[in-house]
Design brief:
Elements: H1 8-11, H2 14-20, H3 26-29, H4 38-41, E1 50-55, H5 59-70, E2 75-81, H6 85-100, E3 112-114, H7 117-121, E4 128-131, H8 138-147, E5 151-154, H9 162-175, E6 179-181, H10 189-199, E7 206-214, H11 234-238, H12 273-276, H13 278-289, E8 298-304, E9 317-323, E10 329-335, E11 338-343, E12 346-351, E13 356-358, H14 361-364, H15 380-390, H16 398-418, E14 423-428, E15 433-434, H17 437-440
Parallel strand pairs: 1-2, 1-4, 2-3, 4-5, 5-6, 7-10
Antiparallel strand pairs: 7-11, 8-9, 8-14, 9-10, 11-12, 12-13, 14-15
Helix pairs in contact: 5-6, 8-9, 9-16, 10-13, 13-16
């Protein structure tokens, strides 16, 4: 692991990268030209490559994000960062091993490792960052990166509150940065096909949408306080969350990059499946409904939390109904991961990792003709990198991500106020306010510790 006292700019400069991989020839060291094989950087020349750093290297980043970004031509991973030293070492090893296979020398030492995300963001040679931390860190780190001039890809769900989502979306716009919610569902062919059929009128005027997410975990018995593992900077892990004693089921499994972490079942760090999977499926609903930059005008929701003694405290059950200004109603519940659109002339539906179903064979086999709407199709990683190069919008930018996340969150607020009996609320998607003072008090997170208070987009 690189020393934190080493000058930041020196840790992974292009020259250090070339030297570490054996690509810096003697002639180049004396000022001559350096020719770098395309196999190292992909099809893009080194001077146009995109350098990316990964902040938070848990199971999703390690298992999916790092390998998938490394597979995009012209992308170079220059740094990894995590408050867990073991995970950090594993991520650095993954990058090094992958690049070493492509280097003539058979070795690679051009990826730096950091415990403090601010050191990553301070590097002038980092073009973009992927934020793969627990949810409570998404906005603070993304804001720091955006304000420092970095482009950002951030895991979903984007935020823990509607207020901080608005701050982030405004900051991205104010600073002219590229932003992508790292959700792959628009890049899944079944959901892409579903939305193309809908927006091209194959089922007529849509009147109802139904979405679902998997059912939640069971409750968890009270957990004992434990000694903080030596590899974990626990105070840094907590960050903007309330102070709390360490216990394994609050954080993540030790020395394990496959087990589901406990923080996903604690409301201080995650809202549970209502936003975790909900932002996947409801983004598809918003995409097909063409409401991805706005929101509903009414919500009614009910849900069930675990008993008070349970250590895990996210929703066990929930269902919500929304009404949009265009007259469409959305029914959302814990059931299975699916999206269904119902129109005046039929219906189409698809479940995660399953085929598209339709009300008739003619709808199912319908082709999108020349002149009709073709929705863009590419992986979320390629979409982000393409936008970094062109300075264009991604398919799921900060505004879209915020709107989808807030769609789930207004239902969660209604549940917090109404519990299992439910609560109906009016919602103004322009002002992003309820018609209920008690509901408006839940628009922001109550506990932020300095210096992570949100200060607006400036």
């Amino acid at each position: 692991m690189k020393s934190r006292t080493e000058p930041i700019a020196a840790r992974c400069s292009r020259r250090n990268f070339l030297r570490s991989t054996g690509l810096l020839a003697a002639g180049a060291a004396l000022g001559g030209p350096t020719v770098v094989p395309e196999t190292v950087f992909g099809a893009t020349a080194p001077n146009s490559r995109i350098t990316i750093a990964f902040i938070g290297v848990g199971r999703q980043t390690f298992g999916s994000n790092i390998p998938e970004f490394m597979a995009v031509p012209g992308v170079q991973v220059v740094a990894v960062c995590d408050v867990d030293a073991w995970r950090l070492g594993e991520a650095k090893k993954l990058v090094g091993t992958s690049y070493a296979k492509q280097a003539p020398s058979g070795s690679y030492a051009g990826c730096a490792a950091y415990r403090d995300f601010r050191e990553v963001i301070a590097r002038p040679d980092v073009d973009a960052v992927l934020v793969g931390t627990p949810d409570h860190w998404h906005v603070p780190i993304s804001l720091e990166a955006v304000r420092a001039g970095k482009d950002v890809s951030c895991e979903k769900p984007l935020t823990l509150s509607i207020a901080e989502g608005r701050v982030l979306a405004d900051a991205v716009r104010a600073h002219g940065r590229v932003f992508r919610v790292d959700s792959e569902f628009r890049s899944l062919r079944n959901f892409h096909r579903l939305c193309e059929l809908v927006v091209n009128g194959r089922i007529g005027k849509v009147h109802t949408i139904r979405t679902g997410v998997p059912k939640s975990d069971v409750a968890c018995a009270p957990q004992p306080d434990m000694e903080v593992p030596e590899e974990l900077d626990y105070d840094a892990w907590l960050g903007p969350a309330p102070k709390a004693p360490y216990t394994l089921n609050r954080v993540h499994p030790r020395h394990d990059l496959k087990g589901r972490p406990g923080w996903m079942r604690r409301r201080e760090y995650c809202e549970g499946l209502i936003t975790n999977w909900g932002t996947h499926l409801n983004d598809i609903a918003q995409w097909g409904n063409r409401t991805e930059s706005t929101g509903p005008v009414e919500v009614e929701a009910r849900g069930v939390y675990p008993p008070p003694e349970s250590f895990w405290n996210v929703l066990l059950e929930m269902e919500a109904q929304y009404r949009f200004a265009n007259g469409v109603t959305l029914h959302y519940k814990m059931d299975r991961p699916f999206v269904r659109f119902e129109g005046e002339e039929g219906w189409v539906e698809s479940e995660y990792q399953k085929e598209v179903l339709a009300s008739s064979e003619s709808v199912l086999k319908s082709e999108i003709r020349l002149g009709e709407i073709r929705l863009p199709f590419k992986t979320e990683k390629q979409d982000f990198i393409d936008a970094v190069r062109t300075r264009g919008r991604t398919l799921e930018d900060a505004e879209v991500g915020h709107r989808t996340c807030s769609l789930c969150q207004i239902a969660h607020i209604a549940i917090q106020l109404g519990g299992s009996t439910g609560r109906k609320l009016r919602w103004d998607p322009e002002r992003e306010r309820f018609d209920d003072p008690a509901a408006n008090k839940l628009l922001d997170r109550p506990s932020w510790r300095a210096p992570w208070t949100l200060h607006g987009p400036g």
